[in-house]
Write a structure and sequence with these properties.
Strand content: 25-35%
Number of helices: 8
Largest sheet: 9 strands, mixed
InterPro entries: Acyl_CoA_acyltransferase
Structural class: alpha+beta
Order of helices and strands: EHHHEEHEHEHHEHEEE
Number of strands: 9
Organism: Streptomyces albidoflavus
Protein name: N-acetyltransferase
Helix content: 25-40%
């Protein structure tokens, strides 16, 4: 499939279509407060780190968001356990402080539903690598949300991330496999990459589930069970992601 992949900085007229393209996030994940507050700012503050893919008809078929931050800043130096949330906080903190970034963090790559299965996700990872390199960075890191982990919510992410296929040694998970094929290396697990908390009534609204049982609740689309406290009237989801490093 012929695609044109460019940055939003180069094609600002596509901002509307980019934002209107449906995503694949489960509804409850959109209630992560760090993402809720910061994700919409990426296109405005870091348009040169936002990728947009269009087909020959000019239709937006995929998008990729990333942010720059200083991994080697004092007090950092290693990929954080806070994963997706933390890279967003670092990026906007560094922007505010005028700190020079040295690393690019992937935030999201989404392919339009009617274009899935065409190899576009791998091309977007490659394009994000190339864009980070062109902007002078030495590394792209990605807090990957493995897209088949929700089928095995009780398996610890540390074990899931190590699962490989016998025939080629590549990761068993399809999304991790795309990153490794593109040159990435599985580094570590971010155990609290996203955190979503809410009242039981909110969780019922987000998921359609009763949330009337004390303890872990398996939620469709969740990578691990959600902890439900009927006694205290709330539930918390701490999502683990897998850090993948792409050295440039």
């Amino acid at each position: 499939m012929k695609l044109e992949i460019t940055t939003l900085a180069a094609r600002p007229e596509l901002a509307g279509a980019l934002g209107e393209m449906p995503d694949t996030w489960p509804e409850f994940v959109l209630e992560d407060l760090v993402g809720w507050a910061n994700f919409p700012r990426i296109a405005e503050e870091f348009p040169e780190y936002v990728l947009v893919a269009t087909d020959t008809d000019g239709e937006v078929v995929a998008r990729g968001y990333s942010v720059p931050f200083a991994l080697d800043a004092p007090g950092r130096g290693r990929l954080p356990s806070g994963g997706w949330d933390q890279e967003l906080l670092w990026a906007f903190s560094d922007l505010r402080r005028g700190r020079t970034p040295d690393t690019v963090g992937a935030v999201e790559i989404t392919v339009a539903g009617d274009h899935l299965g065409k190899g576009i996700s791998g091309r977007m990872v490659e394009a994000m690598r190339e864009n980070a390199r062109a902007l002078g960075h030495r590394e792209l890191v990605a807090p990957v949300r493995p897209n088949a982990k929700h089928l095995r919510p009780d398996l610890p992410m540390t074990e899931y991330a190590r699962l490989t296929r016998a025939e080629d040694g590549l990761p068993e998970d399809p999304w991790l496999r795309v990153h490794v094929r593109a040159g990435g290396v599985v580094d570590s697990v971010a155990p609290v990459s996203m955190t979503v908390s809410g009242t039981l009534e909110q969780w019922r609204e987000w998921t359609g589930l009763p949330f009337d049982t004390e303890g872990p609740v398996e939620v469709p689309g969740a990578l691990v069970p959600v902890h439900c406290s009927v006694t205290h009237g709330y539930a918390v989801y701490a999502e683990p992601n897998v850090w993948v490093r792409h050295r440039l």
